[in-house]
Structure formats: C-alpha cells, structure tokens
Amino acid sequence: MNILPAAVASLSAGLLLSAPAPVHAEPAGDPRIGLLAETTYADNGDPTLAALIGEALERNPGIREAELSSVAARHRIAQATALPDPTVSLTVHGQPPETRVGPQRGGIAVQQALPWFGKRADRGTVARTRADARDALVEAQRAAVVRDVKVAYYELAYLDRAIAVADQEADLLRLYEALAEARYSQGTGLQQSVVKLQAEVTRILSRRDALLQERIAAEAELNALRDRPAHDPLPAIRLGTRPTTRPPPTRPLTDTDDERLRELGRAHRPEVRVARLHMETERGNVRLARREPWPDIVLGAAWSPVGDRRDRAGRLVPPGDNGRDQFSVSVGVRIPLQRGRYAAGVREAAARLDAARAAFRRTVNDVDVAVRAAGARLTTIDERIRQHERALVPQAEQALRAAEAAYSAGTVDVLDLLDSEEMLLDARLALARLEADYMQALADMERAIGTAFPEVSS
C-alpha cells in the first residue's frame, strides 16, 4: 500500500491556490479605458480583466444613459443664454381713423425684451456648472461599473478555483475509495469504510454543483455589465499558477494610510466633484435670484400704413406728406412690483445653497467612511490570508499526510482520514475565498478614493 503517499502527493500538488499579480495603475490615456476621461483604475496586470472592463465601459447601458444626459445638459446652455423670442403684433382697424395725412388702416409692431445686464451670463454659468456636474456623474457611473466588473470577475475566479479544488478532492477521495475496496477485498479492511468514502465523494460533488449554480449567477451579472446576453458563456478564469514552493506569491501591496487615502478620495472621487459643482450651481442661482428684481428692457418698433386723404379738403389741398406711412420706436421697462415674490426667490436660492453645502460635507464624510471601512477590511483579510498561508493550510496538509501514512499502516480508520481531508479542503477553499475577498476589497477601495490604489514597493 505504499502507492498511497505518492499518489496523494501528485494530486495534492494540483490543489495549490492561485494568487493575483501585483496591481498597477493605468494612465488616463490608455485605449483600454475607452470613454473614461480622468478616472484611472488598476487591472493588476491581468489582460482578461482589462478587456472585460474596457468592454463594459464601451457597452454598459448605465454609462450610455449618463453620457446622453450629459449631452442633453450641454444643449441647455444655449437655451439659457438665448434672448427671449420677439413679439410681433398686427393691428387692423375696422373703421380706419382719419389723421391729418390720411386714414390709418392698421399697423405692425415688433417688441424685443432684453434681460438686464448680467442675467443671461448668470443663467449661462448655472447651465454650464449643471452640465459639468452631469459630466462628473458620468465619471461616477464609469467608476461604479469598473468596481462592479472587478467584484464579479474575482467572484468568478473564486468559484472556478473552488470548483477545481472540489474536482481534485473528489479524485483524491476516489483514490481512497479504491484503496479501501482493495483492503476490503483482501480482508484487511471494512466495507463500512468504502461506504463512508462513497458518501464523502457524493458530498463533494454536491458542493461542486452548488458552486456551479453560483457561477451561473455571477456569469450572468458580468454579462449584464457588458450588455451581453445573460447566458453567454465565459471561460474559466485563472488568476495565475501558485508555485509549489513557499513563500506564496506576493499580493498587491497596500498602504492603508487613512489620511493619505482620504486626501486622494476628496481630490479624485467623482461624487465629491459633483457635490462641489452643485454648490457652484446654487451660488449662481443665488446671484440670479438677486438680479431678478432688476427691470428688463423692452425695445419696440412699429409701422402703420396710411392711405391718401379722400375727403373734399384733402383732395382740394392735399398735405405735403399726404398718405405717408408712420414709423415709431419705443423703449419700455418691466416694473418689478411683486417684491415679495423676488425676496422669496432669493431666500429659496440661499436655502438651496445651504443644502448643497450640507450635501458636500455629507459626501466628504461618506468618502472618509468608505476609505476607513475598505482599509480595515483589507487589513483584516490580509492578516487572515497570512494566517492561512503560514499556519492553517500547512498544518492541514501535514495532518492529512500523517493520516494517510497511519491509514496505510492500518493504525487509524477511515474516519480519521476523512476528517483530515475535510479539514484541508475547508482550509484551501477558505484561502481561495479570502484571496477573492481581498481583490474585491481593493476594488472597493479604488471606488472609495476615485482612482487606482497607490502602489507600494516591496
């Protein structure tokens, strides 16, 4: 029965988990970023992840909706700064009044309102800052999509790794089962051991089926982010091959300096820029509300056609300007009588500005909270990964090897062997889960600070 340790060693070598490559920040002009203007993100040197992010940025319906809303906001600027439409009026007299130079048949008048100096400029400023805020909302939507793609991608990577581990564990249990059957046929083992091993194989395969169901859901989510049919298949994701020698490969190194990360978040997160632009918009509305009582000017011009005099005096002694049309110009102002309405408008604009300031403070606080939470999560997960890599997984591997040797020697029964095998399976799956959680936490941190996570030299 000396074949057991060698066979187990061969199978166990394939169970070592993968680790992601070090993070690196892409420049804003990288073609893979597509429409992404200022926001940078890390693809961790993974071309598959970079391709998925690029496709999502190009095709995601949420991003397209935000971009079209931004375009619509830009068209609002020309409307806000345009002059009011002129007014044309036509007058027809049922009984033309007689004047010294002849009967006045009617008239045409044109009036143009001119907003007081500065009103159109203020309206244009408000419209432009609103459009800038829409642009920042596009950046926020893109950053959210990048984060969601990463979370779904690393979830798929975990599930693929867990399925592979389950497959290899099932193969290992089948080897145990063959060994138990051989011992039973030789009269040195119990049939109960064979049955227990068969039940354990069934349990592992049931866990594998559950993992496959989870993969279908994660695959559909990633397809939706790329505007692809939910049933489009995605190949198995391999983040790399872990070397069989220790120490394990280096994960992206992180520096969870809260103060530095908070500064990055306040400087780069799109939501902070949106809140700041909302304040600028409301400041412009306050200026505009204070200008509203200022009177608008109305310029006018009129033309009245006049016919020749046909009365007896006019025919005998026609005036020198007989039948000459009349032209006139006018200047008027709008009288701001409703002072209470204008005062209420100023108070409303001031209250909206105060609300925008409060929203800005809330947004900055949200950034601080998100940075703090993501940093604490990264630190905790990193410590747990180190614990699994340095203690739990090696100890479980050593315990399984000892159980295998004892089982081969006949000093322990199959239950001890199964306990050791299940302990190692749980440790390896937990490590795979932690590594995926770590990369997802990095994506959350990147979203919190609005830019690629700063690299730390090893």
Can you walk through the features of this model?
It is a single chain. This protein has 458 residues and is α+β, with helices and mostly antiparallel strands. The protein has one domain (3-85, 125-292, 339-449): Outer membrane efflux proteins (OEP) (Up-down Bundle), CATH 1.20.1600.10. 64% of the residues lie in helices and 8% in strands. It contains ten helices and six strands; from the N terminus they run H-H-H-E-E-E-E-H-H-H-H-E-H-E-H-H. A four-stranded antiparallel β-sheet has the order 1-4-5-6, with no helix packed on it. Strands 2-3 form a two-stranded antiparallel ribbon. A hairpin with a 2-residue loop joins strand 2 and strand 3 (102-103). Helix 2 crosses helix 4 (119-185), helix 7 (270-291) runs antiparallel to helix 9 and helix 9 (339-409) runs antiparallel to helix 10. The radius of gyration is 39 Å and the shape is elongated. Mean pLDDT is 82; it is low at 1-38 and 241-249.
- Globular, elongated, flat, extended or rod-shaped: what is the shape? elongated
Major β-sheet, in short? 4 strands, antiparallel
Mean residue pLDDT? 82
Rg calculated over all Cα atoms: 39 Å
Unreliable spans are 1-38, 241-249
**Oligomer description:** single chain
Q: Layout of helices and strands, plus pairs?
A:
Elements: H1 3-13, H2 47-59, H3 61-81, E1 87-92, E2 98-99, E3 102-103, E4 106-114, H4 119-185, H5 191-225, H6 258-268, H7 270-291, E5 297-304, H8 312-316, E6 326-333, H9 339-409, H10 414-449
Antiparallel strand pairs: 1-4, 2-3, 4-5, 5-6
